[in-house]
Specification:
The chain is α/β, with parallel strands linked by helices. 39% of the residues lie in helices and 12% in strands. The protein contains 13 helices and 13 strands.
Length: 390
């Protein structure tokens, strides 16, 4: 099988010849710039002085083709252009900037953090006057169809429409502040619903433009909305169903109406309690499978939801294990994950999240080298395998 055939079989819950592998197919399965430079140096590759940025706030890049080919990566992304004309002029002397929603971002070591919330003091009346960005700005999709068609027609990779905006919950928190918006849900539900509706309309407008350009050429469409923490959800399952799930359903129904591609949803942390709701809302693929978070056990997720969901990630914990793991521990954990998640198809291998500078290049190389050696089907299933590290 070539890469595209392998991925399409996997996403149809069929066993391909090998488990698909991802690094940089999305901006939440990629690598931070410093870590990327270190990896290239470790592997004896020429420096890549101007890699394409995949996510400004996270400091991640799209790896060069030589690295993707070395690790037999099966995906190639096509991403919406980042900003309309006026945003580029809003850089600040401290290196930060205002985005098109008027959120101010400031560099904090490797990342950018939001330091202002433009709708923090907004009332219901004020919300009527908010000027939203134009999702139809032609700069957003300039040249996009040609890039997607080139990947579709002249390569055999699976083509990914990468994440280009936050989901309704996450964006509302960025505009209001997490504490304030969570209080809105409890104390001012009418305001919360109005704000979520406006954000959802904006997201659908962006997808309308994006899929109008690339919908015929992509196999996976990615949307993010971070709802989980390490220990559980930001909000209760009941609040999710009342406020957020209807927004997700509108977005995913729209995406499915415009393309045959599968819907990939990124939501960090412990989201076990609402995975059935994700499925009902139209999610086809769950990422990142953060198995060190509460109730996110791999075998449990595979057993309970593997017939309805594909899983993308979880190949190696990037928070607690990979920064300190020995080669033997990495080998055991990668094999364990593949043996649990791969049987029956529906699994794409990648670490749980983006690779950060605290992960040494020898460890990262060991992850992918091990995955390449153990990705071939048939894969024996394990339903209960002791973890190598708590």
């Amino acid at each position: 099988m070539n890469s595209r055939e392998r991925v399409l079989a996997t996403l149809k819950h069929k066993e391909p010849d090998k488990v698909p592998i991802d690094l940089g197919g999305t901006n939440v399965t990629s690598i931070e710039r410093v870590a990327y430079d270190s990896l290239r140096q470790y592997l004896g590759m020429e420096p890549d002085p101007t890699p394409e940025i995949s996510h400004v706030q996270q400091g991640t890049i799209y790896p060069n083709q030589d690295l993707l080919q070395r690790y037999a990566v099966d995906f190639r992304p096509v991403t919406m252009n980042r900003a309309p004309r006026w945003v580029a002029t809003r850089r600040l002397p401290d290196g930060g900037w205002y985005d098109e929603y008027n959120i101010r971002w400031k560099k904090s070591l490797y990342y950018y953090d939001a330091i202002t919330y433009p709708l923090a003091s907004c009332t219901s009346e004020d919300l009527e006057q908010v000027a939203w960005p134009d999702p139809c700005d032609p700069m957003r999709v300039e040249g996009l169809r040609e890039r997607a068609r080139e990947l579709y027609e002249n390569t055999d990779y699976a083509v990914v429409a990468d994440i280009m905006c936050r989901g309704p919950f996450e964006q509302a928190c960025r505009l209001r502040g997490y504490d304030k918006f969570c209080l809105d849900l409890a104390l001012d539900p009418a305001f919360a619903m109005t704000l979520l509706a406006r954000i959802t309309e904006m997201i659908i407008g962006l997808w309308d433009a994006y899929l109008g350009a690339v919908g015929d050429y992509v196999h996976v469409v990615c949307q993010g909305d971070d709802l989980g923490m390490q220990t559980g959800l930001f909000i209760s399952p009941q609040m999710y169903c009342r406020f957020i799930k209807p927004c997700h359903r509108r977005i995913y129904d729209f995406i499915h109406s415009r393309t045959e591609a599968k819907v990939f949803m990124h939501s960090c942390g412990s989201v076990y309690d609402i995975v059935p709701e994700f499925i009902e809302a139209g999610v086809d693929i769950l990422n990142p499978v953060q198995y060190k978070a509460a109730r996110m056990d791999l075998a449990r997720l595979k057993k309970e939801f593997g017939n309805d969901l594909c899983f993308w990630g979880g190949g190696m914990d990037t928070q607690r294990m990979l920064p300190d793991a020995s080669p033997d521990e990495i080998e055991a954990e990668v094999r364990r994950t593949i043996e649990i998640m791969a049987p029956g198809g529906g699994y794409v291998f990648s670490p749980t999240h983006n690779i950060q500078p605290d992960i040494s290049p020898d460890r990262l190389d060991k992850v992918y080298e091990t995955a390449l050696r153990h990705r071939c089907y048939p894969v024996c299933s394990r339903t209960a395998v002791p973890r190598t590290r708590n």
